[in-house]
Each structure stands twice: as structure tokens, then as C-alpha cells.
Amino acid sequence: MPLHKTITVSEHIKSFIWKVTEKENELANGIELSQRCQDRLKDMKSEMHRRAFLSIRHLLGLAGYEGKHLFYNEFGKPFLMDGTHISISHSHNFTGIIVSTSNKVGIDIEKQREKILRIAHKFTPLHEYRTVANAEALILKLTQVWCAKEALYKIYAQPGLSFLNHIMVNDFKLGDLGTTAEIHYQGRKSSYQITFDEFEGFSYAYAMDGN
Questions:
Q1: Which of 21, 161, 177, 196 has the highest count of CB atoms within 10 angstroms of its CB?
Q2: Which of 49-63, 92-106, 117-131, 145-159 comes out lowest in average pLDDT?
């Protein structure tokens, strides 16, 4: 069982990361899927997506839940039946969840790739990174910023929210374990804490609100 990492934020908040190495039939072992989940699985054309889907069901089990306890609203935001906050992410062969009985939370995992240099202008003001030493460092920092903004977007989950115009991640140095962020949208301002991690060429971030 390749549970890659468990992150205990507090007694109320915990995150689980899975490295997907098993075959699909191995991941299906011991997992009970509702008819709705079986139908979703069958509709997935990519084997990697099916394996990620099944691994997330194992992560739910580690958090004390089953797939039947999970549902989504009209904007695609996941919820748990008992009111516990949850966020889910997957990138290539890593999947992760975060669950919280206190703060609203968001999570994102992203592979560090050169591609992010080409799309960075779409989600962050590039002039803020002119002091970053080299391309490798820039890829890492931009990936961390993307993860932070994606995690925040998952918390807020409102149509029209712009990564570039509405989500502000306060500057941080490479090697920092976290930063703060704000969302300014439709006349409202909300504040968040961001925590970073990285493993095997992937960046990870979780966000939680200040309430």
C-alpha cells in the first residue's frame, strides 16, 4: 500500500498523499464502489485516471470514509456527508486529499515542468519574479504559486474567480515552508494560510482559511 506521506496539520486537519504504482485491478481490491462511482469509473478513458480515482478511494478509507460519503456540488466542489471539509488533487502518479473538521481547506499537487514558464503570465504577474536566480528555480517557484492558487480556488469554488486578477499569493523565498494569501472578489476580501512541500519533482500546497 503506497501511502507516500501523511501530514498532520492539527488534531482537526490531516492530509494523505498516495503514490500510484499499483495496477488497476490491485487498486480495485477491497474497494466498494456505489453504482454512481462504478459508472464514473467506466466512463474514464484513461487508465491513469481510473487508477487515480481508485487510489483516492483508498485515501478516503485512511481518513475514515468511503466513496459513498463523498458528493459534489454544481461547481464540482467535493463535500463529505458529515460536514467535514475535504479537498482532492491528483497529478500524474500522485494523488492527495486533505480533510478538516475546522477550517475550510484546499489542496493541490503539480509536477514541476518547464511548460509552466509559457503559461505563467495567465495566472501571476511575471515582474514579481525578476530576481529569481535561474530557470530551474523559476519553475519551482511558479509551480508553488500555481499550487497555492489552485488550492485557494478549490476552497472558494465560485465561477468567474480569476487566478490572475482575484487570487493574491504574498511573496515568499524558495525554501520557505509557506506564505499567506488573499482573495478579492465581488467586493469581499478573505485571508488564508498556505503551506508548501515538494517530493520527487512535484510541488504540493495546502491552503486553509483564517476562521
A1: 196
A2: 117-131
The residue segments making up the domain with residue 133 are 108-209
Q: Are 95 and 107 in contact (CB under 8 A)?
A: no
Quickly tell me which residue has 475550510 as its cell: 104
Give the burial string for 81-119 (b: 16+ CB within 10 Å, else e).
Answer: eeebbbbbbbbebbbbbbbbeebbbbbbbbebeeebeee
Q: Which residues pair with 180 in a beta bridge?
A: 193
112 with 203, same domain: the answer is yes
Q: Is residue 60 within 8 Å of residue 67, measured between CB atoms?
A: yes
Give the list of residues 6+ apart from residue 191 with CB closer than 8 angstroms, or none.
180, 181, 182, 209, 210
Q: How far apart are the first and last CA of the chain?
A: 35
